[in-house]
């Protein structure tokens, strides 16, 4: 993706291609996901299935570089798009898939494209997965990863968070906990199809209007329960309190109009703004869960990342100060 290409507006309606994709997904992946048992064997099947989909429908730019990080407490990958070098800013990426399925490797293509379009190195943390590592293992690993980046010379305000699905919940948990501790915050948060309501009540309500092509709210809840088993739904690290929104970074929230988590995206946007935070919500008509990761399936994926590029550039305090001096 050319860094000089202008970011297009969010489409006003679904395309024929997105509608056909949703139908094919419902009678393909949607049927298969309902048959996978939510136990250790089922999780192994789901991990292989999702990895295959991400590999087949993702696309890394030629010249992408990936370097593994394997510290005792923070494993992950640095992913740099073609021509990207380490500098003052970096993206901290938190992958999703119900706390149980994906990895830094499955999300390498998305990280590479995000790096290429923003010009920033992307660190994808490989947090521990359920059911082998239940709550709060993932949340603890996300906090450790952010602290590790601070030891690498990055200021909190020079880090931008990005994440998808359950990674969205983990990203919000991170900034909420830092607000409680009055710790310095990252510059911005960009989320793709964030999961916020771990009871899937919002998703189930949305499902009554339009079924998610990929998975039902009940099946997704059973998968997330592998991480949250035995923990009350109202635990403060699960039901996130956004009363501190005025202390949080600005958010960009993107979701597909065909997915059930569009309800979570709307809820998060509303809660942030009503509590004094800054949020921009984009619902892309007809598109599915984390469509940004699947450019070979949805051409809109690259356009969405262009809008992320512009959002992150606008939240760079150093660039803003430089522009202000240039104008004066």
TrEMBL record:
One MF term in the entry's GO annotations: triacylglycerol lipase activity
Domain Alpha/beta hydrolase fold-3, chain residue ranges per copy: 91-292
Annotated catalytic residues: 165
Highest rank taxon of the organism: Bacteria
Gene3D superfamilies: alpha/beta hydrolase (3.40.50.1820)
Family membership noted in the UniProt record: Belongs to the 'GDXG' lipolytic enzyme family.
Name of this protein: Alpha/beta hydrolase fold-3 domain protein
Origin species: Tsukamurella paurometabola (strain ATCC 8368 / DSM 20162 / CCUG 35730 / CIP 100753 / JCM 10117 / KCTC 9821 / NBRC 16120 / NCIMB 702349 / NCTC 13040)
């Amino acid at each position: 993706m050319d860094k000089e290409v202008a970011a297009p507006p969010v489409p006003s309606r679904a395309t024929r291609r997105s509608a056909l994709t949703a139908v094919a997904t419902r009678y393909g992946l949607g049927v298969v996901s309902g048959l996978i048992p939510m136990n250790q064997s089922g999780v192994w099947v789901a991990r292989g299935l999702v990895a295959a989909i991400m590999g087949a429908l993702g696309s890394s730019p030629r010249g992408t570089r990936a370097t593994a990080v394997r510290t005792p407490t923070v494993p992950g990958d640095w992913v740099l798009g073609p021509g990207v070098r380490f500098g003052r800013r970096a993206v901290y990426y938190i992958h999703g898939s119900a706390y149980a399925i994906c990895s830094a490797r499955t999300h390498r293509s998305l990280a590479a494209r995000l790096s290429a379009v923003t010009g920033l190195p992307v660190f994808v943390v490989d947090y521990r997965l359920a059911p082998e590592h239940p709550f709060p293992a993932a949340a603890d690993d996300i906090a450790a990863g952010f602290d590790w980046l601070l030891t690498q010379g990055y200021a909190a305000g020079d880090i931008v968070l990005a994440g998808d699905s359950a990674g969205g919940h983990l990203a919000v948990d991170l900034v909420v906990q830092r607000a409680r501790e009055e710790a310095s915050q990252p510059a911005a948060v960009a989320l793709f199809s964030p999961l916020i309501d771990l009871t899937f009540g919002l998703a189930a309500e949305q499902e009554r209007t339009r079924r998610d092509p990929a998975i039902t709210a009940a099946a997704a809840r059973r998968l997330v329960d592998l991480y949250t088993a035995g923990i009350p739904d109202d635990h403060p690290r699960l039901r996130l309190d956004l009363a501190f929104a005025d202390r949080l970074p600005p958010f960009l929230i993107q979701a597909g109009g065909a997915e059930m988590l569009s309800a979570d995206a709307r809820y998060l946007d509303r809660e942030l703004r009503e509590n004094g935070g800054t949020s921009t919500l984009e619902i892309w008509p007809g598109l599915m869960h984390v469509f940004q990761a699947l450019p070979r399936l949805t051409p809109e994926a690259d356009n969405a990342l262009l809008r992320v590029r512009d959002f992150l550039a606008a939240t760079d305090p150093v660039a803003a100060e430089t522009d202000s001096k240039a104008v004066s």
